[in-house]
Structures are given as structure tokens and as C-alpha cells.
Specification:
This protein is mostly helical. Helix 3 runs antiparallel to helix 7 and helix 6 packs antiparallel against helix 7. About 75% of the residues lie in helices and about 0% in strands. The structure holds fe (ii) ion (2 copies). The site of one fe (ii) ion (FE2) has 6 residues, from helix 8.
């Protein structure tokens, strides 16, 4: 399948050409979205779920919608001051990905009987995730490229990637199919962030303390979001540490952990 299956296994030049190409993106998403409707096999029917499972799934999906809306708003806002044309092209593909993610999660909510997803999202929002979204959009609105790309493409993407993977392992078959497609996209978005900031850090070492400061500011919100979401998706407490360490590993690859 064309596209970025494993960004970390690609040569730097291959990675750069592929991730900054609309054409490559289109071929990649066509590969895994072909014959799907709202990101999954239309024929699939829901397995019976008890009330508690359904409630937990609705809360989880509501919070996924907040994360996806944050990424949609942030990635579109960043196009205006992205440092190069290839980066603007990458961000255009991310905007479309995030809109699709939001749509498939909203569709899944309606399928689970949620008549008014906007109202439900408001009621079930994790306060830490809402604060994270506000902080991210502040970086974006202040046209601070490094802070925005770090908060979105490293921190938010790593958080989503980790939570979606943990959830996909134990989700019902429909939610699992939807998540598998979304995870492929989040991996690409994360790869972009690590690559972009990795190159900037190599050229401007004084960027590191700035990113460390941002990480400090966001860490508590990220950990609170992790705890709430992993609990709702049924990940046992002892396994939660494993997932948070995956998130920390993504950040430490850039050398900005403390
Ligand atoms: Fe997304
Ligand atoms: Fe993303």
C-alpha cells in the first residue's frame, strides 16, 4: 500500500517527499478507505452492548470529537503562517484527515442513539482536554510555529495515537474499524511533527528549553486526559502506565523530555 505505513523506517528524503505530498496522501487514504462508509464496512452491525458499556463509549467518542475539532481548527489555522509551501501542502492533508475523523466519530455517536452530539459533547467533555484545546489554539493564534507544531503534532497526536491504539484493542468491531483507519492518519501527523521539530532543533538548539517549558505547561492536562479516557475505554489501571510511557517515548525522541 502506498503511503506512510511506518514513518520511522523511511529514509529522511523519502519521508520528506511523501509526507509533504497531496498526491501521496490521496493514494494512501484511498488504499484504506476504499469500500468503507464513514471509515468502516457498511455491512457491519453492532454487537449487543450493556448500558454501562454504551455510556462509556459515548463519553469516549464525545472526547475524541473534542480532540479532533482541536486538531482541525489548529491545523487549518497554521496554514497561513507555515514556514514553507511543502508544509502548507502537508497541513492541507491534515485538515482533511481531521475533518474526516470528526465526521466518523460524530456518525458513530448518532449510530449509538445520540440525537444531538453537540449537546452531548458539551456535557461529557473532559475539563483537562478542553483546557488543552484552549492552550493549543492560543499558540496557533499567536502564530508561534514551533509551539503550535509541538503542541499539536507531537503532544496531541501522540496522545490520540496512544489512546486510539489502546481503545482499538478492546473496542467493539465497528469502533475498532473506525479507529484503525484514524490511527494510520495520526501516525502520519505525528511523523510530520517529529521530523519538522527534529530538524529545527538541530539548527536552533535554544528551541529545546522553549519546548521543555511548553511540555511542562501541558503535561498535567495530558496526564489528566489520559487517565480519564483510558479509564472510560476499559484499560486496567496497571496497563495505563504502559500507554503513558508510549506517549512519553514520542516526546523523548525529540529530546525535549526532562
Ligand atoms: Fe485526528
Ligand atoms: Fe491528527
Amino acid at each position: 500500500m502506498p503511503g506512510l505505513a511506518e514513518p520511522h523506517e523511511l529514509l529522511e528524503s523519502e519521508f520528506f517527499d511523501q509526507v509533504h505530498s497531496f498526491d501521496f496522501w490521496l493514494q494512501a487514504v484511498e488504499g484504506y478507505l476504499l469500500d468503507t462508509t464513514y471509515g468502516r464496512d457498511e455491512e457491519l452491525v453492532d454487537e449487543p452492548m450493556d448500558d454501562a458499556q454504551q455510556e462509556a463509549l459515548i463519553t469516549t467518542l464525545c472526547n475524541y470529537c473534542i480532540g479532533e475539532t482541536a486538531a482541525l481548527e489548529a491545523s487549518s489555522g497554521m496554514i497561513g503562517y507555515a514556514p514553507s509551501r511543502p508544509i502548507k501542502i502537508f497541513l492541507a492533508t491534515q485538515v482533511v484527515d481531521e475533518a474526516r475523523h470528526l465526521e466518523v466519530f460524530l456518525h458513530r455517536l448518532r449510530e449509538l442513539g445520540v440525537a444531538d452530539p453537540d449537546r452531548e459533547i458539551l456535557q461529557r467533555a473532559n475539563p483537562a482536554l478542553l483546557k488543552f484545546k484552549d492552550q493549543l489554539l492560543e499558540y496557533v493564534d499567536s502564530r508561534d510555529w514551533e509551539a503550535a507544531v509541538f503542541a499539536q503534532n507531537v503532544i496531541l497526536e501522540s496522545l490520540e495515537f496512544t489512546v486510539f491504539r489502546a481503545h482499538a484493542e478492546r473496542a467493539d468491531p465497528i469502533t475498532q474499524q473506525v479507529l484503525v483507519g484514524v490511527i494510520k492518519d495520526e501516525r502520519r501527523h505525528m511523523g510530520f511533527g517529529e521530523n519538522d521539530l527534529g530538524r529545527r532543533l538541530a539548527l536552533t538548539p535554544h528551541l529545546r528549553p522553549r519546548l521543555q517549558k511548553i511540555k511542562h505547561q501541558l503535561d498535567m492536562l495530558v496526564m489528566e486526559t489520559f487517565a480519564g479516557t483510558l479509564r472510560e475505554t476499559g484499560v486496567p489501571e496497571e496497563e495505563q502506565k504502559h500507554f503513558t510511557s508510549n506517549y512519553l517515548a514520542a516526546v523523548s525522541r525529540l529530546g525535549v523530555d526532562l
